[in-house]
Structure formats: structure tokens, C-alpha cells
Amino acid sequence: MNDWHRITLQCLSLGGLLAFSHSVSAHTGLLATDGFSHGFLHPFLGLDHCLVMLGLGLWASTQNHRLAGLAVLLFLVFMVAGALFGLAGGRFVYVETGLIVSLLAVGTALGCGTQRVPQPWLWVAVAVFAALHGLAHGSEMPLAVSGVAYMTGMVAATAILLGLGWILGWVARRGHAIGLLHLYGTLTGLTGVWLLFSA
């Protein structure tokens, strides 16, 4: 597969996935009736969630494997913690603002080509943003579905998005198309700015 084929594949994959994310907010109605489907679809149906999780995966592809793996694992753990807090009835008035800030942060990291982030700030940012995304997911769980099934679906979908971002980033780097990661970051940051001023 030549470089142009790799670039085309990445663009088509990203375009198709983002087209599927037709909602700007994660708070959207779902047609599925079981807990797993609700939890699985929720990350895909929120453009903010989808962009951040793909972006984190893309960023992870630019780091050493140990650092990237720890960041992804930390994101999943704190997302689950935030979701459990939301399932228990916990609320945070600035959660939507936090989600927008996460878009700006991921967009800046990718758009500006930031390869190295000071680790203390990295862990804090990943943990806080993951908890906020989890809280948004957890607070939206329908009362009639199983919490365990919902959480399982949510974690599975998030892992897929993170993994897909990681793979696409690896493909872009192998194809000498690292500029696509910067472009994705710029678009993600601009989406955050748009949401900030349209809220």
C-alpha cells in the first residue's frame, strides 16, 4: 500500500466515523432497548466524546508505548469512575464546559504538534477529562437498563475509539502524513471554540 492509499484510507475512515456522529452533544436519544447497546452507542453519538477519544488515540500513537498505554488506561479507569458517580446521581454543573475544554486541549496537543507534555500535567488532564466524559455518559443512562451492561458497552466503545485513533495515527506516521494529525487537532480545537460560543 503506497502513501496515498494510506492517506486516503485514513481520511475515509475518519470521515465515515464522524459522519456517523451526527449529534453535536452527547445528550441524544437512543433507539436501542438494552443496556449494552445504550452504553455502546453513546460515545459514538456524541461528537465531543468521539473527537476527544479519537484524538487521544491519535496523540498516543506519537508517544512511546509505555506512556501511551498508561494514558489510555488512566482514561478508561477515570471514565468508569466518573460514570459510576453519574449513575449514583452525582452531578457537576460545569460538565459541559469541561467537555468543551477537553476538545480544546486535545486539539491544541495535536494541532500544534505537541509531542511531549509534562507528565504531571498529562496525568491530571487525562484523569479530569476522562472523569467528565464518564460523568456525562453515566448521568444519561436510562433508568430501565442494566447498569453493568451499560458500563460494559460504554467501555467497549471507548476502547474501540481509542484503538482506532491509535491505529490511524500509526498509519499516518508510517505514510509520512503526520500533518493529518495536526489537521485533525486543528479541526477538533475549532469544534471546541464553536461549541464554546454556541452554548
3D structure, described in words:
- The protein is mainly alpha-helical and 199 residues long.
- It has one domain (3-11, 43-198).
- Helix content is 76%, strand content 0%.
- The protein is built from 8 helices and no strands.
- It has helices spanning 3-20, 35-45, 47-60, 65-87, 95-111, 119-139, 147-174, 179-198.
- The longest helix is centred in the last third of the chain and has 28 residues, at 147-174.
- It is globular.
- The protein starts with a helix and ends with a helix.
How are the SSEs placed, and which strands pair?
Layout: H1 3-20, H2 35-45, H3 47-60, H4 65-87, H5 95-111, H6 119-139, H7 147-174, H8 179-198
Helix pairs in contact: 1-7, 2-7, 3-4, 3-5, 3-7, 3-8, 4-6, 4-7, 5-6, 5-8
Q: Number of domains in the coordinates? A: 1
Mean pLDDT: 82
Total helical elements:
8
Which stretches of 5+ consecutive residues score pLDDT under 50? 18-32
Estimated radius of gyration: 16 Å
Give the helices and strands as they follow along the chain: HHHHHHHH
Distance between the termini: 43 Å
Shape category: globular
Q: How big a fraction of the residues is strand?
A: under 5%
Helix content: over 70%
Structural class: mainly alpha
Largest sheet: none
Number of strands: 0
Transmembrane segments: 42-60, 67-87, 93-113, 120-136, 148-171, 178-197
Keywords: Membrane, Signal, Transmembrane, Transmembrane helix
InterPro entries: HupE_UreJ
Protein name: HupE/UreJ protein
Keywords summarizing the entry:
single chain, 199 residues, mainly alpha, globular, signal, HupE/UreJ protein, membrane, transmembrane helix, transmembrane
